Amino acid sequence: MTKENVEAFLNQFHQKLKVFSIIFRDDRGKNAQTLADLEITPKYRETVIKEIKAEDYSQGPIVDTLNSLGEMWEYKIKYPLKGEKQ
Fold first, then answer.
1. CA 31, CA 38: separation in Å to the nearest integer?
2. DSSP of 66-82, one letter per residue?
3. What is the pLDDT of residue 85?
4. Cα 37 vs. chain centroid, distance in angstroms?
5. Could you give the CA distance from residue 59 to residue 72 in angstroms, rounded to a whole number?
6. How far is CA 18 from CA 12, 67, 82, in A?
7. Which of 8, 41, 67, 85 has its CA 20 to 30 A from that of 29?
């Protein structure tokens, strides 16, 4: 995967994000508990996603076999938690 491919995907993603919402798996207790433990609110989660850059790319696209909703792209971001200094 080239940086140009990742940038093209992110450009398309950010344009779609202006119109459509993201599907979050909030029905999974372990995910909700982890977010609560880390004090990551739904609003903060969206802020982090909107700030993803090509340099944060990890892997993808990969087939979404769990939900069958298309493909997934993975990014790794080190974000400060609430109250943590940057």
1. 11
2. TT-SSEEEEE----PPT
3. 62
4. 18
5. 9
6. 10, 23, 26
7. 85
Cis peptide before 61 (omega within 30 of 0): yes
Which of 44, 53, 59 has its CA nearest to residue 13? 53
Question: Which of helix, strand or coil describes residue 17?
Answer: helix
CA 78 to CA 86: how far, in whole Å? 10
Q: Is 59 helix (H, G, I), strand (E, B) or coil?
A: strand
Q: In the numeric block, which tokens belong to residue 37?
A: 């433990």
pTM beyond cutoff 0.85: no
DSSP-derived 3-state class of residue 60: strand
**Residue 34 and residue 43: Cα distance in Å, rounded?**
15
* Residue 80 vs residue 14, higher pLDDT: 14
One-letter amino acid at 71 equals: E
